[in-house]
Amino acid sequence: MKRLGTLDASWLAVESEDTPMHVGTLQIFSLPEGAPDTFLRDMVSRMKEAGDVAPPWGCKLVWPGFLARVVAPFWKIDKNIDLDYHVRHSALPRPGGERELGILVSRLHSHPLDFSRPLWECHVIEGLENNRFGLYTKMHHSMIDGISGVRLMQRVLTTDPDRRNMAPPWTVRPQQRRATKTDKEASVPAAISQAMDALKLQADMAPRLWQAGNRLVHSARHPEDGLTAPFTGPVSLLNHRVTGQRRFATQHYPLDKLKTLAHESGASLNDLVLYLCGSALRRFLLEQGNLPEAPLTAGIPVNIRPADDQGTGTQISFMIASLATDEAEPLNRLQQIKTSTRRAKEHLQKLPRSALTQYTMLLMSPYILQLLSGLGGRMRPVFNVTISNVPGPERTLYYEGAKLEAMYPVSLIAHGGALNITCLSYAGSLNFGFTGCRDTLPSMQKLAVYTGEALDELEAAILPPKKRKSAEKAKK
Question: Where is the signal peptide (predicted)?
Answer without folding.
Answer: none
